[in-house]
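Following the same procedure, sequence and fold were stored together, as reproduced here.

>
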Amino acid sequence: MTNMKEIKEVPDIDRNLWLPGNATCAGCGLDLSLRWALKALGPRTVLVTPASCLNVVIGVWPKAAPDFPFINMVFAGGAAAATGIYHGLKARGIEDVNVMTYAGDGGTTDIGIQGLSGAAERGTNIIYVCYDNEAYMNTGIQRSSSTPLGAITTTTYFGKQEHKKNLPAIMAAHNIPYVATASVADPLDLYDKFKKAKDIKGLKYIHIYAPCPPGWKIDSERSIEVAKKAITSGMWILYEVENGVFRLTGKSKRYIDPKKRKPIKDYLTIQGRFRKLTDDDFKELEKYRDSLWRQVNKELSFQELEEK
């Protein structure tokens, strides 16, 4: 796989797949991430979407935005439906189609995890994507297990009391061939990961940081700024685990040095959903951030030992 170095090198394939006029909010991380995914995967793609914002924003037939096979699915059925589609195509001798589930964090970290875990255990040849906007945004901004500590939602009015579930780590523990995190703040890194996943056999899992301006209480034009601050503060780490080998990727590589990480307050205080954070909350989130990086250092140290 050749890594893309400049935006101008990326083919504009998605223009013919995703028509103008979809109903995403301005600055929606979901829309941005899906366009980049389709640039990498191309027209031979079937998309399954469990209940989420994506079911709604595509519009209602016959004026829907996708111009490729797109299946709306029940909350818990994303991975199961993609499994059935893959095997149905395979039975007909069609194996050059990318079958992908594109689900929110509610439909992945909560309601959909049983089907996802089953597909991972079976090694089904699909791509499963979680676009993580850190709450159930489509149904009224309720907390999910992917909502960060301290975030205000309609069901955590004083701020969530628990840290977010680390689903990429859970998926890596399934020993699937490819797990990656990505962000709309580093589109070339995101593009490269989908290009790589396209050519790997077995279940591939990609977890994307996808800002939601209404849910996060930010101005729509600040979506990418917030996503960048998540990376520069070290609160979101870009990496991949390919056949058990862990690598930092993209813009996160420079932040392995803690001295280069920006204060987490730069990231948190520009989001209205964190307006009730206390000093103790900031300290707890710093501990959480640091614990994620300690795990990264352990993984990298282990890889160095393996290489020796």
In short: The chain is about 35% helix and 15% strand.
